[in-house]
Amino acid sequence: MKIEFWSDIVCPYCGLMDHRLHLALDRFEHGDDVQVIHRSFQLHPDLPRAGVSQVKLIEMAGAPTTTVDRVLRPIERAAEAEGLTPYRAVDRTLGPTDFAHELLAYAADQGRGNETWTAMFRAHFGQARKLWTAAEVLDFAGEVGLDRAGAAEALRSRRYRTRVAADQREAERLGARGAPFLVFDGRFAVPGAIGTDDLLAVISKAWAEGHASLRPLPVVTDAEGLCAPDGCAVPDRTI
Question: Where are the beta strands (DSSP E) in the chain?
Fold first, then answer.
């Protein structure tokens, strides 16, 4: 069985869903037979390399300041309740994640994709780590044991750029407007974040129903480009 998981490392629901997916698969009796494939979905590719604070991004999007207490602090509390701590959804900066996604694609080719995704979520949300420049990403690569020279060549050549872009196009073709977005064995699509019990139920259903149809669903958000209670949406670039 295959689970495809589209996400961005700056999306707080994505980091939480990565944790929940680990928990659900630990509880699933066929967990060892499930292949998780992480795919890229960039939420804020146009942000400056220096990054902007989460509070500043909320202001830039014209969203209400109550977004912090209404949406982001509850994510932090949920993460803490589920054993994922510290988890900084508010006190952090966000930036473009193209280099980060290209490193993750490189890590996947080295057979270390899933663990590197999880480590990057932990670095960003656990340490408020900035991963927007090639230098920042390469420092992270060295810390998680990836070959720094190989990673540097991958980022310098930009040879994974097309794969990262193709991931996003495929998610959008399936109906995704944001992240997280999960597809279970090509049978069920789940946009947004769901709890561990519900996630386990979907995994079990996909395992049992080998001939169900893929049914993309809309992602509901309160503000373009910001996290709402069920996920994070891409900004409307027509504005």
Answer: 2-7, 35-40, 52-53, 93-94, 178-179, 181-184, 188-191, 227-228, 231-233
- State the Cα–Cα distance between residues 157 and 155, nearest whole angstrom: 6
Task: Indicate whether this model's pTM tops 0.70.
Answer: yes
Residue for token pair 């994070």: 232
150-194 pLDDT, tens digit per residue, is 999 999 999 999 999 999 999 999 999 999 999 998 888 999 999
- CA–CA gap between residue 40 and residue 107 (Å, rounded): 13
Structure tokens at 211: 């001939």
**Whole-angstrom Cα distance, residue 214 to residue 210?**
11
CATH numbers and ranges of domains, the chain: 2-233 (3.40.30.10)
What lies within 8 Å, CB to CB, of 168 at 6+ separation is: 6, 40, 41, 42
Handedness of CA 43, 46, 50, 55 (dihedral sign): negative
